[in-house]
Amino acid sequence: MIGLSVAVGRFVEALFWGIFRVAGAVAGVLILGVVVLIVAWVVARKMWARRKR
Question: This protein's superkingdom (predicted)?
């Protein structure tokens, strides 16, 4: 019975860390995407301002 309890505990722990790993990867990709969009927007504005002169 104790062995089953340990197995269930380890399964729940592995599931917990797996969910956190996926959530962390998704958050990292979203943050990277936002940073890329901001940099592209700044570069596009600078190019547009230079072209208007």
Answer: Bacteria
Q: How high is the pLDDT of residue 51?
A: 85
The tokens for 29 are 């990709």
In three-state secondary structure terms, 28 is: helix
Give the residue-averaged pLDDT of 2-25: 93
Query: How far apart are the two ends of the chain, measured CA to CA in Å?
Result: 79
User: Residue 46 is encoded by which pair of tokens?
Assistant: 């600078």
CA distance 53 to 51: 6
pLDDT at position 36 is 98
